[in-house]
Structures are given as C-alpha cells and as structure tokens.
C-alpha cells in the first residue's frame, strides 16, 4: 500500500510538472506570437519556422492601397512577405534599414464571369490559397490545380512559381497588378510583352496587389496509388508513362514516392472524375475559418526552439539518424495513408488538401479546406522540416540517370520521403521549369523532405549541391525552397530578358532582396 501511495504521489507530481511546463511554453509562445503579429517595436521579421530573420528591417502592415503606396514610397529598400513560408530569404530587403511589407491585410476576392462563359477569380495577394479555394468552392468553382498547401498566399505562390500535382498556378494567370517603386499601380495582362517576367517575378518588379486566374467548374479528383517493392534500378518506364499521361491530360498529376528505409515506393495518380453537384444560390454557406496558428514568434522561446532543432541534428551521428529513419517513415505513411487517419481528418476538419487525397466532398462547400495540414505543420514546426527540390529535364535519358545517381546517393536526406513528379515546361523567364516555346520539354521535380538540421550537416544539402554541379548539367532549383546559393554557371531560363524588365520597372533596385544569385542582380 505504501508503495502504491508513493507511486501515485510521484505520478501526480509528474503530471503537475508536465501541465505547468506545457502552460509555461504555451504562454511564452502566445506572448511571442503577439510581439510578432502586433508589430511591437524591435520585433524582426522571421519566416514561419524561424530559419532566418531580417534583422533591423521595419515591418509594415498596410490594410489599404493608400497605406501600401505610402509604405513603398517611404523606404528605399522594400521586400514583401505574408505567411513567411519560403525557405529562402526572399522577405529580407537588401538594406537592413529597409522594410518588410506584410500584405496579409489584402484578402478580397471576386468571381468574374468571362464573355465566353468561362469563369475567373480576381483576388488580392494576401489571401491564402486555402481561403481562395474555399471561397470559390462555395460557388461551385475550383482552381484547376488544388493548392499544395493552404497556408501559402496567392502573391507568394505566384512570385516563386508555386505548383502542385506537377502544374504551376501561374499557368492560369490572366492578369496581375503591382504597386511599383514610386507607388504607382500597373496591371499586366496575359499576352503583354512583360507578362513572362511578371507571372513569376521573385518580388523584383514590385508589390503584387492583385491577380486574376481562370477557374473551372468544380469537379472531384480521384486519387489512386500502388505500393511496390523498391526497384533495383530507376523505374524509367514508369516515369515515361507519367509524363505521357500528363501531356495527354489523361491524369491531372502523377507522383513517385520513395520510402528508402522501408524499401517500398508508391505510384500515385490524380484523375478528374467530371462534374459533381453544384451549390444552389439559396443554400447557406459555411464561413471560412483559418485554423493555422503554427509559426514561430519573436523572443527567447522561439530562438531556443530554432537553435535546439539545429543543434540536435548536428550532434547526432549519421548512423543513428539512419536508424531512426525507418520508424519515421512508417509513422509518416501511417498518418497520410491509413483509412482511420483519413476519417479522423475529415471528422475534425484537419483537411490539408482533400481533393488531392481523394477526400474531397461530392458537393463543394465553404469550409472544405480548413487547416493548413494541421499535423504536417506541427511536425514541420518542431522538427524544422525543409523541402529541397531539384529539377532537371526528363530527356536525354543518359543525362537524367546521372542526375538520379546523385539524388539516390543522398537518400539519407529523404528522412520522410522522396517525391518525384513530372511537370511540363513553361515560358516564364525565371521559372524553374522555363523552356522556350520552340523547345517544350518535360521536367522531373525531385523533392527531399527532411529536418533542416539534417540538411545542414556536411553530407547534406552542401554535398548534394556540389555533386549536382559536377554530374547533372542543366539542373535547377525551386525558388521557394532550398539550395539558394548559386554561382554564375547555374543560371537557367532567360535571365537577360528578365533583368531588362527589372531595370525598367525598378531602376533604383528598391525591391532587390538581401540575398540573390549573382546572375539575377542587374
């Protein structure tokens, strides 16, 4: 009895300590988020997982066009930010005394019926992709490609060439409006001479204010997958089939997913299943709810968490990390693929991309997209997960295989998984999948998902970059993700044409970022 009583006291004490600890952490987090979000003097801009900050740069949070124009004219160095989901220091101005302009106050949206019967959506840059999709779903419409993450903003997606299911959102762009360096407003239409620079601009031309995209009548997407044993060599025929299905529009998107520690890979396809029931004009619509509080704030706790994540992975030996890789993969696959978790996500509204998972409702509704990958976001935040995405042409085959040799030699970086998607080229000057109209091609997008601390070790991102330099001519990187440091021989697209537009639009380099490839500096 004495032992039982003692054990109970210890258990109660432990639970009390745990509750107090959670309360202290939650309190610190809440306070630091308030410092960041309310613009307390001295707060600095940080990206959402605290991977980089902008130092002494001012944070401007305009809510009207007049305020935005005044903020742009007030500072000699300006960059734009919103939810801060970039893994590169896009948000930081070149001059540390400049300003980061937070455009999340611009979230208005309007559905437009075009003369030929098609529909378009005109939305401001600060609206999140999840909110945009929710609002048009409620009107029986959908983006051609459902967003890959509902926390990204429309402006950030367009500026960095955001994509999902192997298709870029900028492909549906009809027009885009900017606030320029002198506060003036300029709209660029598809077909205008500067459109290919404006569609994917990296924030170099001005502050994106508004964009108009073509949208489609809502239709469900069917998601299918096949799990296979890990192949002895690259499944080249499968990649060819994926590219062929996408080119012929037999599928909306395709993906190979490698789980190296588990020794399995999956082939995934998304197919449009046609029109579904539309919402009647008299039906009440469920309002959009943004349940995405997950980001680092400003202060001691946030700094400690960011440093601790990096420190743990720098101290743990690689062999030990590899031992943990298998259970990590298993947990990830279970969370994303099990029927039980799918039901739980639907019941609790933790829908990350319901259409992309085959979980989309038969009837569109206003709150179908609710939480920005709730579970993913928590794991991302506390482990500092980063995506490193490398891109290279599918052909010639011999060259692509050399690129894959480098990729698979770094499979220890695919701690969660390795994704491979096919994606057709586009004509946007600095898009990571740019190719002239006379030479359309198919690209392979290879996406590593791993804790940032793991990518920072000697055999991590730096090693991957070095080996790609040597053995993978023509490789590229995704602007919003890792591998930012570049040299003069890595350029792609039509940098000369892009910089010519930059010089005309931004003659004093007001929108130059703090860190930029040499070949993108005018």
UniProtKB/TrEMBL annotation:
Residues 52-218 form the FAD-binding PCMH-type domain. InterPro entries: FAD-bd_PCMH, FAD-bd_PCMH-like_sf, FAD-bd_PCMH_sub1, FAD-bd_PCMH_sub2, FAD_lactone_oxidase-like, Oxid_FAD_bind_N. It comes from Noctiluca scintillans (Sea sparkle). Pfam families: FAD_binding_4 (PF01565). Keywords: Membrane, Transmembrane, Transmembrane helix. This is FAD-binding PCMH-type domain-containing protein. One of its GO terms (molecular function) is FAD binding. The chain crosses the membrane at residues 12-30. PROSITE patterns: FAD_PCMH.
């Amino acid at each position: 009895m004495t032992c039982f009583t003692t054990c109970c006291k210890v258990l109660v004490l432990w639970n009390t300590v745990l509750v107090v600890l959670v309360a202290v952490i939650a309190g610190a987090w809440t306070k630091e988020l308030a410092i960041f979000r309310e613009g307390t003097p001295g707060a600095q801009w940080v990206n959402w997982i605290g991977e980089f900050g902008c130092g002494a740069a001012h944070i401007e949070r305009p809510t009207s066009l007049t305020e935005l124009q005044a903020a742009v004219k007030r500072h000699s160095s300006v960059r734009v930010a919103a939810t801060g989901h970039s893994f590169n220091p896009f948000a930081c101005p070149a001059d540390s005394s400049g300003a980061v302009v937070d455009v999340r106050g611009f979230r208005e949206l309007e559905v437009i019926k075009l003369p030929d019967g098609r529909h378009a959506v005109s939305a401001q840059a600060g609206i999140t992709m999840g909110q945009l999709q929710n609002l048009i779903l409620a009107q029986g419409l959908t983006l051609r490609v459902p967003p890959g993450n509902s926390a990204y903003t429309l402006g950030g997606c367009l500026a960095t060439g955001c994509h999902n299911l192997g298709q870029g959102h900028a492909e549906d762009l009809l027009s885009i409006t900017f606030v320029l360096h002198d506060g003036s407003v300029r709209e660029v239409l598809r077909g205008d001479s500067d459109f290919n620079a404006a569609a994917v601009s990296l924030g170099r031309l001005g502050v994106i204010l508004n964009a108009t995209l073509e949208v489609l009548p809502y239709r469900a997407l069917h998601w299918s997958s096949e799990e296979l044993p890990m192949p002895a060599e690259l499944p080249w025929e499968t990649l060819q089939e994926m590219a062929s299905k996408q080119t012929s529009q037999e599928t909306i998107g395709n993906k190979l997913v490698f789980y190296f520690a588990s020794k399995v890979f999956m082939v995934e396809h998304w197919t449009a299943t046609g029109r579904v029931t539309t919402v009647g004009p008299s039906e009440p619509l469920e309002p959009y709810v943004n349940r995405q509080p997950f980001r680092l704030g400003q202060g001691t706790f946030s700094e400690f968490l960011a440093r601790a994540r990096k420190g743990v992975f720098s101290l743990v030996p690689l062999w030990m990390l590899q031992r943990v890789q298998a259970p990590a993969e298993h947990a990830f696959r279970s969370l994303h693929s099990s029927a039980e978790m799918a039901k739980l996500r639907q019941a609790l509204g933790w829908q990350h991309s319901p259409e992309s998972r085959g979980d989309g409702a038969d009837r569109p509704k206003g709150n179908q997209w609710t939480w920005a990958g709730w579970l993913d976001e928590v794991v991302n935040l506390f482990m500092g997960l980063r995506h490193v995405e490398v891109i290279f042409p599918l052909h010639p085959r011999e060259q692509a295989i050399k690129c894959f040799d480098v990729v698979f030699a770094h499979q220890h970086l695919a701690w969660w998984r390795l994704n491979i998607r096919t994606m057709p080229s586009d004509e946007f000057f600095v898009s990571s999948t740019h190719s002239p109209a006379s030479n359309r091609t198919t690209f392979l997008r290879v996406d590593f998902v791993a804790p940032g601390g793991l990518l920072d070790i000697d055999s991590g991102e730096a090693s991957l970059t070095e080996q790609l330099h040597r053995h993978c001519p023509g490789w590229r990187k995704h602007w919003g993700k890792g591998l930012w440091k570049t040299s003069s021989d890595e350029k792609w697209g039509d940098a000369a044409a892009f910089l010519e537009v930059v010089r005309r639009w931004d003659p004093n380099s007001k929108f130059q970022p703090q860190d930029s490839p040499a070949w993108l500096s005018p």
